[in-house]
Batch of 4 targets.
Target 1
Amino acid sequence: MTVERCAAWIALDVEIDRLTLRWATLEAQVARDHGWLLLGAEARQALPEAAEMFQIDDELDVLSNWRDAALGPLSQLPAKNLRDVAGKLAVAARLLQREAMRAQPLVDAVLMELGQLQCLACGAPEAL
């Protein structure tokens, strides 16, 4: 369950990155073609590209809230095997790219759990 939850969090984070890049591409286009940065709110809304930009804004708000809400519980999920630990580390690595402080609980949990892992077949401590 842990690795699946980590994978879902990463997929959500990747989708946020994709939407952010799409929004930035649209913004560059409307800035170049229509002077976006100089336009008022009403003029911006009238642009054909604006509808997609505002839709992306709304979607990013929802997805970011979901991602943020899912992050805290990830450090509390038990890592029972190396796949689970790797999942937590993958989430922490994505966070470290831009939000090092938010990664700390995951890193702390993984470090503790690495020393407690046991072989799934025999129950012996994992040799690390």
Target 2
Amino acid sequence: MLIGYARTSTLDQTAGLEAQQRDLHKAGCDKVFTEQVSSVDVTARQKLAEALEFIREGDTLIVTKLDRLARSVAHLHEILTVITNKGAALKILDMGIDTSTPTGKLMLNIMGGVAEFERSIMLERQREGIAKAKAEGKYKGRAPTAMSQSEKVKQLHADGKTAVQIAEAVGISRASVYRCLAEY
């Protein structure tokens, strides 16, 4: 059985999710597990866990891109171990990799290492760029949103509203409400 897994990081990436689903169905997937959740918190990826639980011997898990499945080489190996221990295979469409073959397994390890290397280089460049911008006084960071609402917070507090009610009304956290009130 061919089992597909599609994922986007945010809820507003519907076009990307639809494209993945289309490609997975085109590849012949009998069942597709879909979710919209960040890969940073791997414990939140319930549909991936369900797909890995669903896989049986002889099945193939298909993803459109490697980054839709795993965040790091270590995480990729964890997933691949689960798949392999069940007697199943992994296929990545855009890379043409199929772990049911020895060459596919080799290529997956190589490409996974290259992908992780690329990500670490990109993050290093990003950190360097931020440091340079800060040194030149061009990087200000994110503008504080809660403190710009402090007058409204103070007014609602004066009207007898609770911190939770104020937070909901203004659209900030309860902790931010307390910070605004502490400066009051």
Target 3
Amino acid sequence: MRELVVDLFAGPGGWSHALHVLGVRDVGLEWDEWACKTRARAGQLTIRTDVAMYPVWPMVGRTHGFIASPPCQAWSMAGKRLGLVDQPLVHQAVADLAAGRDTRAKLLTACKDPRSLLAAEPMRYLHALHSVGEPEWIAMEEVPDVLPLWRQYAVILRGWGFSVWTGILNAADYGVPQTRKRAILIASQTRTAEPPPPTHAQAAEPEGLFGPGRAKWVSMAEALGWGATDRPVPTVCAGGGPGGGPEPFPSGARKTLTDARDRGTWKPPGPRPASQRTRLRPARSTTPACTCGKHPWAWSLRSNNQANATIRPVNEPAGTLFFGHRANECMWVAEPRSPDTASQGAAPESIRITATEAGILQSFPADYPWAGNKGQQFSQIGNAVPPLLAGHLLAPHLGKTLTRSDFTLAV
């Protein structure tokens, strides 16, 4: 029986969590130790292996759905982007694998970044599965610069009888509190491949004769449970995670929250419903909600420490979150509400975003069981597929519908 959903480069479980909500389990192939431990904590099936070395034959004759999100480090703007230099070699590997020729070892020696060739690995699996008419559907995701490669895949898959769509989608258009753009490939042997209709827009669109309308993009404040008009107080906690790790905040940053407590300007959140974790919706964090009203400083999120970093106020979605080294740390920074704010005293110190907050901005539940120290958790979060986006991509293949209002399932 063809019932297996295979998830290559499964990471900490973005696709897997979406499938869980949709009532389906996948088998994830993943190499990273801490991502595998996170998946185990989340109850997800995982084979810890090098995707480039794992044999395909155990999947042949059993695979219904196929998912692949190759590592993006070689292509991402957060790194050296040597994948762009290696792109002709990756295209050659895909063409050779589609024809049944494995030239990976030879091509790998010429790659500037050995991770570049991992983007060709899905074709090795797809060629073997195609020999028995599988899979029924395919979903793949990567950074926008990989779109030309997805188009090459599309040409091959159409020749094999698939309907295929490729393009760039913005996660914010599907309720994720982050304007994360990704290159997507959707293919099917049983239905017309097309992107899911967006549920959100930068400005709310009312329902009309030609469509159901769209809600306004979900802001960071809304997703994190901070007051829409109040000055939020970022979470501050002691250093060290489950796997250890250094003190995560700059000297004196904890005083920001201490002062707020002393002024009586915050209150702890109420209990979180137990059912919330099973829903595909931006979960609320345990961050205190400030009730101090008007304040000269407003919190924004700075995406990294580079000169061109995206800075977004909390009443907007976050920019693309990426982590990996200190230059890519995301920080809560105080921005003046008006030009004369500086005369009213020094700004609060910047505070590093917590793993829980970062996970929520990727649309993971607030209580998602991240494993490892803070650096390992942030690396997993930055590389993950937002589960809410994944849910919208996968639901049509599984005969499900995600409702626009609350993202609970409607069958």
Target 4
Amino acid sequence: MTPLIDGLQYANWSEKIFRQMRAGGVDAVHVTITYHETFRETVLNIERWNRWFEQFPDLIFQGFTATDIATARQTGRTAIFFGSQNPSCIEDDIGLVEVLHRLGLRFMQLTYNNQSLLACGCYEAEDSGLTRMGREVVAEMNRVGMVVDMSHSGERSTLEAIAMSSRPIAITHANPASWHPALRNKSDRVLRALAESGGMLGFSLYPHHLKDGSACRLQDFCEMIARTADLMGIEHLGIGSDLCQDQPDSVVEWMRVGRWTKRIDYGEGSASAPGFPPMPEWFENNRDFQLISEGLAKVGMSTDEVALIMGGNWQRFFSVSFDPKTATGLSLDDGRI
């Protein structure tokens, strides 16, 4: 059977949520462990996850390779893959890319909305593209087996990352801007380039990324996925829910502001309602993925196509993305060396 995989979550983790994952049959989740944290602060977040792995070994375990997805299915657990939404965790030290990969970091965004040491974010007025350090870090991420994620990046930076990366990149949580013109959503030009390079798009359910926000209908969301499949090809699509379940509104301030400003940045939300928007009624937690599967079937997708979107494509992407490469370009685990 094809696995169920979510390409991005940032929940207020608890036993309740872990049990909802199991109730929803979620086999693997890419979880955010860093927004603006330094290297040491990121390690502290990994320590927190280590305690959860120890406390709930019957529900979750840390994933390192794509084979862990099969282990999750065989043991009735959810594999947790770490990711960062900002390169703050490597500070200004390229050597920390490999260190964090060894600790389990499998995704890293080159920027979170703003200009970083590596690339330009989608909120900047002008996108200068990848920086000198950014080009070096992309090459190092390719070498060690860490996915380049451009979910919060500007257009030029994203196109340059696609062109420069020797491995397919991911946009783990975004939607087409042609469907809903949020700054975070992606143009058809970017989506075509992503598909041509073998990359992956994870469709976001965060209301600010949805047409009609929290009132978005399941049918509209699924029809958008079907249209995107026509644009990109079914094999490049998955779900990246961006679920921030049970987080207090104060966390939004940390996500948007970090330490870079003294003012409150409301981002794409309304200044009168700076907290988390309500999720659509058809997707409130990890037990609701089946509703998306049913919705995709109703808009005309086959069983096989639905399975690819709900996890099959992410599984294939993980299998070519997480293993380090030797100087010969062969995987350390491919059996030929």
